[in-house]
Write a structure and sequence with these properties.
7 helices, single chain
């Protein structure tokens, strides 16, 4: 089960909640839009297809275009691979110990009391390995939840700012209840521009 797939499925739910909240009162003010974002907003505002000011964002594009979020995905993937490798190493070590014990038993090198002691020790070791695996999985899951919460807050803050600046009546998310829409109403580039400018990935920040 891949981190990216898990995160996107959860992010889709969170994003749906975040963009829906933009229909409520929003007095937050944001930064000035970038050139790309301004063009998107101008196109939306100048299209007289509805009496309401309606726009949408593309969740896939937000996920793929947000550099800092992509970096977090990669970090979680690496953590997952490391956790799996550590678990497999512990399992192999335990298997070797079981095999060594079996060989000693077959050669008659151990007393019954010693055999019982070794079996209990290996059983405890097996339980410890399972507990370590569960702890690692829980830690990664918590990281997922933290990233989801942060992403939700960032998107919601930006959408609230855009709503206040441009007077949006509704903000929809493509793929979550929205089957089709004219690209003229797509403000994904504007949201992405603000996400990436406010939260650059760590390596970019260090170089700057």
């Amino acid at each position: 089960m891949r981190i990216r797939t898990i995160l996107f499925s959860i992010l889709a739910i969170i994003l749906s909640s975040a963009v829906s909240s933009c229909q409520n009162n929003g007095d937050a003010s944001g930064n000035e839009a970038s050139t790309t974002g301004e063009n998107a907003v101008e196109t939306v505002s100048s299209t007289p297809k509805s009496g309401l000011n309606i726009v949408f964002i593309d969740g896939d594009s937000l996920q793929n275009g947000y550099a800092a979020l992509k970096q977090e995905f990669e970090r979680l993937e690496e953590n997952l691979r490391a956790a799996e490798a550590n678990h497999q190493g512990r399992v192999r070590s335990l298997q070797n110990e079981f095999e060594s014990l079996q060989n000693q038993i077959q050669r008659g090198e151990l007393s019954q009391n010693r055999i019982a002691q070794e079996e209990q020790r290996l059983q405890r070791r097996q339980q410890e390995i399972l507990q370590q695996q569960q702890l690692s999985a829980s830690a990664i899951q918590q990281e997922q939840m933290d990233i989801n919460a942060q992403f939700s807050d960032e998107v919601e803050t930006i959408l609230e700012s855009l709503k206040a600046e441009n007077g949006y009546d509704f903000v929809f998310s493509k793929g979550i209840g929205l089957l089709m829409a004219d690209d003229a109403y797509d403000v994904t580039a504007l949201v992405l521009d603000r996400l990436n400018s406010q939260n650059p990935p760590e390596d970019v920040a260090e170089e700057e």
